[in-house]
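#help-structures
NK: newbie question, is this the right format to request a structure? protein is Beta-1,4-mannooligosaccharide phosphorylase
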Amino acid sequence: MLPVAASTLLLGPCDVQASCGDWEVIGVFNPAVAMVADETVMLARVAERTSEQRTGWTPLPHWSSTGTAEVDWVRDGDVSHTDARVVAIKNGGNLRLTSVSHLQIFRSGVSGERTWQRSGAILPEGPWEEFGIEDPRITKIDNTYWITYVAVSRFGAATALMSSPDLATFQRHGIVFPSENKDVVLFPRRIEGDFVALHRPNPHSHFSPPQIWLARSPDLIHWGRHEFVLGGVQAWEGDRVGSGTPPILCDEGWLTLYHGSTPTNVPGTVGRYCAGALLLDRDRPQRVLARSSKPIMQPTTDFETSGFVPNVVFPTAMLDRGDELEVFYGAADTTVASSRFSKQSLLDSLEL
C-alpha cells in the first residue's frame, strides 16, 4: 500500500438528521465530490431505517409513490439475511434492503477546510427508486455537472443519470444502464466524438471473474459499443470489482481508482473492500496501460474496520490538487473520509 497522508474522517451519522422523525441514520458514505467555483460540493449517500422494533418482525423500508418513507413489516421467519444490507424473502427469493438511501448535499467554502454545511437533499422519485438512490459520482463535462447514481427498486439495481449547472438544481434523465449494473463513471470529455463511461455488469451467472466494461454514447442517454476493460484477477478483487472515481487526465493517460473485494466464507457477511488504481490509454480508454497489483488503500483505521459493514474502503471521488490527489471514500458503509496521495508515487506504483 502506498504511503498516504492520514485518513481524515469528514462526516458520520451524527452529522445528519433523519428524513423522518422516528427514523435513524445508520450511514453517511460513498460521496460524489466536485469543485464549483471556490466551493467543494459533496453529494453523500445517507442510509436510514426505522428506529421502531417489533419482536418477531423485520422492518423493510421503502420510498412510497407519494414521496414519503414507509416500512413493510415481515415476519422474521419469512426472510433470510444475506448480509447486514440485504435480506431474501423466502417465498420467491426476492431481495430487499434493510435500509433506504437518499442523497444529501454538503458544501465547504474553502478547499482546505473540512467544515461541511448541509444545503439540501435529493430524495427518491418514482418506481425505479422505491428502495432508494445510492452511490453518486459527479463528472463535469463542458459547463454541466453530470451525476450517475444507483436507482434501486423491485426491478433491481440500475444506473440513472442527473444533470446540474451548479450542483444546486438538478434534472433527472432516467435509467441509462438497466439492472444489474452499478458503479458507472463518466469520462470528463468526449473521446473520438463519443461520451465514454466505465460500468460494472453484475451477472447472476459467473462465467468469469468480476469485470469492468466500457461503453460509448452520442448523448449520455443511449449507450452501446460495450467492451471489456478489466477483470478481478488478484486475490483482493476476486469477489467484486467496480469503478470508483471518475477518471482524470494526466500526461500518462486516464487515471482512475476502483474497488475490489475478497470472497467470504462467513454467512451473513461480505468480504473486505480495498482500492486499486488503473491507468487507461488516453485515445483508446478500453486499453489498460497499467494497474495496481496490490491495494493502494485498505481498511486500517477504526472507522474503516468497524461500522455497519466492517472492513470497507470505497473510493468514489478524486480531486486533482496538482502534485497531489485528494481521494474521498466511504468507510465501513458508515462514514465519509478522505486521504491524499502523491500523484507521481501513485503512477509509479502501477504495473503493466
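mod (FA): yep, format's fine, and the C-alpha cells are attached above. Residues 343-349 form the longest helix (7 residues).
NK: thank you!
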